[in-house]
Every structure is written in structure tokens, then in C-alpha cells.
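Worked example 2:
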Amino acid sequence: MRLKSDFVVSAALRKANEFAISAFVLKKGDPDAGAIFLELEIDRDAVQLFHRRFDFEENEVWECLNEGLSKPAHVISGQIEREIARDPDCWVIFVQDKHARNIFTITSE
């Protein structure tokens, strides 16, 4: 059973706060089943865009949409605008972290 998107986002934001990672919602999406995108900024010239998907066994997978390569912020912004145009019910979460940690997958020690 999949958790609702708003619950997943809220939990990740609490986790970011626990690790002192700057994170906030850029765009709220459908609270039940909206797609989730993560804009992860290491610095202005090093940004990655991830999205949550599920594999055939229903395991959550965070896939980098720019093939693991960092891009400048303006390139990623354009990519996000295109994703929102395709799916206006999506969520976009912005994270600034020089250690490039994904707040959706980070675990407590």
C-alpha cells in the first residue's frame, strides 16, 4: 500500500529539519497521489532533479532525471516547468544541501 503524497512530503520535511537541511515545498500537488519531484541544489551550478517512481515490486525508487549529472539552476528550472505543464498535480520540493542528501531516503543514525 502506497502512502499519500502529502504524508510522504511532510515526513521528508521533518527529516530535513532533523538533519538541519534547508528544504521547502515549491509547489503543492495532489495530496493523495501527486507525483513528487525533488530539486536538489548543491550550489547554483550543481543542481539535480529527481522523481519518485515505483518498480515492479512496488518499491520506491528515486530516479535522477538528468542521468546523475548536475546542471545549472536555470536548466533545472526549465525542466521543472515542463514537468508541471505535463502534470499540474505534481509536488516540487526544493532542497539546498552541499552534501547532496535526498531528504526522502536519508536515515537517522
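The mean pLDDT is 94. Helices lie at 5-18, 73-86.
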